[in-house]
Every structure is written in structure tokens, then in C-alpha cells.
């Protein structure tokens, strides 16, 4: 197992999965740059992390080329290198059938979910190459394989993440860089609650039950479980594991 000494960037660090990932990586003794737009929640996520490394919060827009370029460069200035990136940032967007969906929603979801992954690959990979290798993990979804009514833009964005993961894994395998993806089903987070409300606005608990019923183990994923799968890919997975998508869905992909 890796001793995890190194420096890592984690986006979406103020949310449930991102905050759990920050804690887990920090506990392993690594430096962590935690990225999010929500300064308040981000501050609390960083305060909850502890370890022998340095954990810093940076408010940034992961869909902004200037912001991503800046925080990758800052991580290099602070620690001399970047050893990996965990792309957690993501949104579900509006719920609407394709014929009624707004272009604005499509553009926003694709910016946050897909453009952000593209930008982090673009700016982190040269740094990883210069450092002799590393790992990038992105957050897909079980909807990277499937469709979901009223979530066309979200599905498209996660299919895009899957494609970029596979392409980058092939491109940089000989550079010692592993590029993988963790794909959760519904997670017990604020996003999961919003999805429950969208399924049944009058009775969100019934909407939540719909999500629970889809999982063979009859529960939602916990944020720490999704984070742990991503952190394993980031820190501990053998170098021969590259270009894969790991479902974290209680067995849903097996059905």
C-alpha cells in the first residue's frame, strides 16, 4: 500500500464525496489542495481534515480555464509537484424531458461536469508527466452506461467523462499516468436529496425510496464509500489498473 506522501488536488471538495475524499487523503499524510466555489462549506471541509501534510482551501470555478490553470500552478509552487487529481465536482442540473430542456441547463451541466474534467486533464497531465507519473480519477456515474428520463444533459456529461477517461488512459499509459473513473449510483448527499425531491416533489421520502429500491443492497451509497473507491484509485491501485470505470452502486451494474 502507498504511504500516500505526495500532493493532490481534489475538486468539489465542499460536497459530501469531495469532503470525505479530502479527509481520507489528508489522513494518509499527503498535501491536499481542496477546490470548490462554496467558500463556507469548503472552509469547514478543510477544518475537518487532519494529517501530517498541508491542506489548503482554494475557491475556484472548475469550468474556468484561468482558474484551473492557476490552482494547478499554485500546487506546484507550494509543494514542488502534483501527484494526482480527484475530479469530484459535479451537478445534476434541471430535470426536464429532452423536448423541454433548456440550452442554458445543458451548457451549465456540461461546463461543470465535463469541461472541468477536460481542463484538469489539460493542465495536470503535463505536470504529472514532468514528475514521472501519477494518477487522475474522475467521478462518473452509473448513468455513464445508462440513460435516465429528464436528465439528458447529466447523462451526456457523464458519458463524456467516461470517454475522456478512456482516451487519456491510452494516451499517457507509457508516461506512468493512470486515469480511472469511479461511478456511483445515488449517494446520500444533498444532490441525492434533490433527486429524491425531483422524483416525487410531494413526498421526497417516497422519491428516496425509489432510489433505494434500485440498489440490490437496498440503500444509498454513503459519501465515504464513493470517496474511498476514488482514493484507492488515486493512491493505491496497481499501476496496471488503468482506464477503468469502477461502479459503486451496491450491485446495480450486475443486474
Description:
- The protein is an alpha/beta fold and 255 residues long.
- It contains 8 helices and 7 strands; from the N terminus they run E-H-E-H-E-H-E-H-E-H-E-H-H-H-E.
- Strands 3-2-1-4-5-6-7 form a 7-stranded parallel β-sheet, sandwiched between helices.
Identify the notable features of this structure and list them briefly.
single chain, 255 residues, alpha/beta, Rossmann fold, 7-stranded parallel β-sheet, 7 strands
Largest sheet: 7 strands, parallel
End-to-end Cα distance: 32 Å
Strand order of the biggest β-sheet: 3-2-1-4-5-6-7
**C-alpha geometry:** globular
Q: Structural class given helices, strands, pairing? A: alpha/beta
Rg, Å, rounded: 17 Å
In short:
By secondary structure, this protein is an alpha/beta fold.
List the helices and strands and how they pair.
Layout: E1 7-11, H1 16-27, E2 31-36, H2 39-47, E3 55-59, H3 65-79, E4 84-87, H4 103-130, E5 134-139, H5 152-171, E6 177-184, H6 190-199, H7 204-214, H8 223-236, E7 245-248
Amino acid at each position: 500500500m502507498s504511504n500516500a506522501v505526495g500532493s493532490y488536488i481534489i475538486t468539489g471538495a465542499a460536497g459530501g464525496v469531495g469532503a470525505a475524499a479530502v479527509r481520507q487523503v489528508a489522513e494518509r499524510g499527503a498535501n491536499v489542495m481542496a477546490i470548490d466555489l462554496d467558500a463556507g462549506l469548503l472552509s469547514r471541509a478543510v477544518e475537518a481534515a487532519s494529517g501530517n501534510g498541508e491542506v489548503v482551501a482554494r475557491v475556484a470555478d472548475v469550468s474556468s480555464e484561468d482558474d484551473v490553470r492557476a490552482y494547478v500552478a499554485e500546487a506546484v509552487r507550494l509543494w514542488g509537484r502534483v501527484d494526482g487529481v480527484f475530479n469530484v465536482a459535479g451537478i445534476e442540473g434541471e430535470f426536464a424531458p429532452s423536448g423541454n430542456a433548456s440550452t442554458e441547463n445543458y451548457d451549465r451541466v456540461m461546463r461543470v461536469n465535463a469541461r472541468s474534467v477536460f481542463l484538469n486533464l489539460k493542465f495536470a497531465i503535463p505536470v504529472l508527466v514532468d514528475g514521472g507519473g501519477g494518477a487522475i480519477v474522475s467521478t462518473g456515474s452509473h448513468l455513464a452506461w445508462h440513460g435516465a428520463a429528464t436528465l439528458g444533459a447529466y447523462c451526456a456529461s457523464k458519458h463524456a467523462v467516461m470517454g475522456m477517461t478512456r482516451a487519456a488512459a491510452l494516451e499517457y499509459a507509457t508516461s506512468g499516468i493512470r486515469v480511472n473513473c469511479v461511478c456511483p449510483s445515488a449517494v446520500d448527499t444533498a444532490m441525492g436529496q434533490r433527486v429524491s425531491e425531483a422524483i416525487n416533489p410531494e413526498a421526497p421520502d417516497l422519491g428516496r425510496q425509489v432510489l433505494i429500491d434500485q440498489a440490490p443492497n437496498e440503500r444509498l451509497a454513503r459519501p465515504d464509500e464513493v470517496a474511498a473507491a476514488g482514493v484507492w484509485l488515486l493512491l493505491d491501485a496497481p499501476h496496471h489498473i488503468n482506464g477503468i470505470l469502477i461502479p459503486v452502486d451496491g450491485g446495480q451494474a450486475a443486474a
